[in-house]
Design goal:
Elements (H helix, E strand, L loop, with lengths): L7 E9 L5 H12 L7 E7 L15 E7 L2 H9 L1 H10 L3 E10 L2
């Protein structure tokens, strides 16, 4: 059996402020989508809660960002990358809360 490659996974759930205009939502979507340009990210996905409906599914967030890195060093580079810092600075007014789950492959 082939061993799994170790990865660092960064999941960010954004809870947008209620009552944002459509323009504000589009600005947020453009900002969060810009993160895909950061080379250290090996897998990138951003989305909204899916239509699945089971009691164990938390659909209270507005958007979920998934970034997979080769290691924690790549994640640390991402954290201070100008594109990431620009996204935070220009879009932080759109969310009330952010919940982050970081994990490393076992």
């Amino acid at each position: 059996m082939k061993a799994l490659d170790k990865k660092f996974v960064h999941v960010v759930n954004f809870y947008l402020k209620p009552g944002l205009s459509q323009e504000d939502v589009l600005r947020f979507e453009a900002g969060v989508s810009s993160l895909h340009t950061i080379d250290e990210i090996k897998i990138f996905n951003v989305g909204k809660p899916a239509i699945t409906d089971r009691p164990v599914i938390d659909k209270s967030y507005s958007y979920c960002l998934l970034c997979v890195f080769n290691d924690i060093t790549a994640h640390d580079i991402y954290q201070v990358h100008p594109v990431h810092l620009h996204f935070i600075e220009t879009c932080k007014q759109y969310w009330d809360n952010v919940v982050i789950f970081d994990s490393e492959t076992i």
